[in-house]
Amino acid sequence: MFAVTHTPVIVAWSPDGEKVMSASLDNMLRCWNTISSKLLGPPFQGHKELILAASFLRDSSHAISLSRDGELLMWDTGSGEITRQETVSKYAQTIFVAALSVDGTLLVTSDGKQGVAWDI
């Protein structure tokens, strides 16, 4: 059982089953060990707006998150460091949905009018 002191709005399981990531209303991500239920370090900070999507990449050592301001961040899940940053929407608050491909190589985002595929 995970005891959280923040309000998670998104939860993602790692492909290897060893980690769970939660995104909360404070615009931060937290990575948890599924066996011990303990945080794997401090919260991941970098988003300025509400996080809309979060997912682990296939190897579980990296994760991506997308916020309402159109910023895509890639994280090293061991250190919590940002390893890549992309602006996927030049218009703030226009991204409504995002999905990562099964093989973890493409991210598709949509603003309700068009979809865009991004190489990850």
Q: Which helices and strands, and how do they pair?
A:
Layout: E1 8-13, E2 19-24, E3 29-33, E4 51-56, E5 62-67, E6 71-76, E7 82-87, E8 97-100, E9 106-110, E10 115-119
Antiparallel strand pairs: 1-2, 2-3, 4-5, 5-6, 6-7, 8-9, 9-10
Question: How would you sum up this structure in a few lines?
Answer:
The protein is built from no helices and 10 strands. The chain is mostly beta strands and 120 residues long. The mean pLDDT is 85.
Q: Could you please describe the fold and organization of this structure?
A:
It is a single chain. The protein is mainly beta. The protein has no helices and ten strands. The chain has a four-stranded antiparallel sheet with strand order 4-5-6-7, with no helix packed on it. The chain is globular.
Distance between the termini: 32 Å
The backbone outline, from C-alpha atoms, is: globular
* Average predicted confidence as pLDDT: 85
The number of helical runs is: 0
Describe the largest sheet.
4 strands, antiparallel
Helix content: under 10%
**How many individual β-strands?**
10
Q: Low-confidence parts, pLDDT < 50 over ≥5 residues?
A: none
Q: What is the CA-based Rg, rounded?
A: 14 Å
- Helix/strand-derived category reads mainly beta
Beta percentage is: over 45%
Strand order of the largest sheet: 4-5-6-7
What's the SSE pattern?
EEEEEEEEEE
Give the quaternary arrangement of the chains. Answer: single chain
